[in-house]
Amino acid sequence: MTESPNTTTTTISTKRSAPSTVRSTKNSSIVFDNVTKTYPGQSTHALDSLSLEVASGELVCLVGPSGGGKTTALQLVNRLVDLTSGEIRIGDTDIKALSPIELRRTIGYAIQQSGLFPHCTVAENIAIVPTILKWDRKRIEERTKELLELVGLTPIETWLGRYPGQLSGGQQQRVGIARALAADPPVMLMDEPFGALDPITRAAVQDEFLEIHRAVGKTTLFVTHDIDEAIKMADRIAILKPGGLLAQYDTPAAVLARPADDFVAEFLGAERGLKRLALTTVAEVLIDSQARRNGSSTRSESGANSRTEASPAADWPEVAATMTLREALSVVSAAHAQGARVMDAGNHLGDVTLHELVCPPSDELGRQSEGAGV
């Protein structure tokens, strides 16, 4: 996304994230093997026998209430704190086999409020790790420009010499992501990176980061307290209970459809059914509804279904094909309509009814659960 240097973007992408399609050819998985952390003087564990694997190229969200050990788990990976027992591996390497400094140079780290150095320019902030790694000046300059393009801060020359205090919150967070990616690390750790942003900017930056993640395929461990953010962002979600116990580890669809226990169900909240609607796009339901109406998923040459412009659907509100069912339902409800006209780049693809939005075919949501891990 190209952003003006003097304004904060208010454009929210309606594109639903999908599991990352780009995977590193190198094993960059993160494995927690029976990991326990107990801080001195504490009678309870911060993490208790945590075992899970983040596959190479996967984005996993750690979520749960305060005291669940989310941030502790993240800090154990880059040895900001040391584990009490167990083992953590990145790829095939036990992290204790590396010095903390050597380890951290292979890990990108993004935190809330960006963590940028206020006295350094955008270019200098991004160049910190490459400079430490003794990259030559030309390589650093090329990488900095490449990353500014990637995070949508263009024209590039506009941003290179600016200081963090001259940027909006969303712009600072984009630079923070660029800095975390600067040395092309195989692993990214993100500790509530978007938590300080206003809702509109936060949604936009989330969408942009998902696009970046699909492009670069980094193994990413992402801490958030917001279950809606986890549902939107994650390939899989790890829900932690107070005391650092793993309550459930599965895909967003599987967690919403089959909470492991009462704690998980309560944490997900009363709107669990509505949250499931955020996992499916209008386009998916449209194709299915056309197949059922016409006996085939093949659209007509015009792209529209058999309803005519004279039908009641002509007065229905328009929704983008890339919207989630939850977003489309909000539009239809606000218009007091019985359905919506599905549009893509100005083209009318067809119509979906209110019933189809609220009660999509079970296989649409069910297929999201396929391949779920425990």
Automatic annotation (TrEMBL):
GO terms for molecular function: ABC-type quaternary ammonium compound transporting activity; ATP binding; ATP hydrolysis activity. Its EC number is 7.6.2.9. PROSITE patterns: ABC_TRANSPORTER_1 (PS00211), ABC_TRANSPORTER_2 (PS50893). Residues 292-309 have a biased composition (Polar residues). It is an enzyme of class 7 (translocase). Residues 30-267 form the ABC transporter domain. InterPro entries: AAA+_ATPase (IPR003593), ABC_transporter-like_ATP-bd (IPR003439), ABC_transporter-like_CS (IPR017871), P-loop_NTPase (IPR027417). Residues 1-20, 292-315 are annotated as: Disordered. The keyword Heme does not apply. Keywords: ATP-binding, Nucleotide-binding, Transport. Belongs to the ABC transporter superfamily. This is ABC-type quaternary amine transporter. It comes from Brevibacterium celere.
